[in-house]
Amino acid sequence: MKWLAYTRIRVYIDPIDFKKQMNGLIQVIHEEDRSPQKECVYIFRNKQSNKLKLLVWDRNGYFLGYKRLDKGRFDFPVRKDGACQ
After folding, report:
1. Is the pTM of this model over 0.85?
2. What is d(CA 74, CA 76) in angstroms, rounded to the nearest whole number?
């Protein structure tokens, strides 16, 4: 996977239900009227902001990554439209 080739990162500000798996995250993207795109990383967080899920298209399918912090929280910017680039 060539991470440096990804030119866009979309961070979803609103927390999601972390029971959602790959298909649920793709549905969230479609509900925002955005089609999952190549060369884009989608980042989702949980309510406590201590876990992230990353959804990436890799050649012939999606890759789902997961990051959990033992201590602390991820800082997210505040935007009214629900996402930032």
Report:
1. no
2. 6
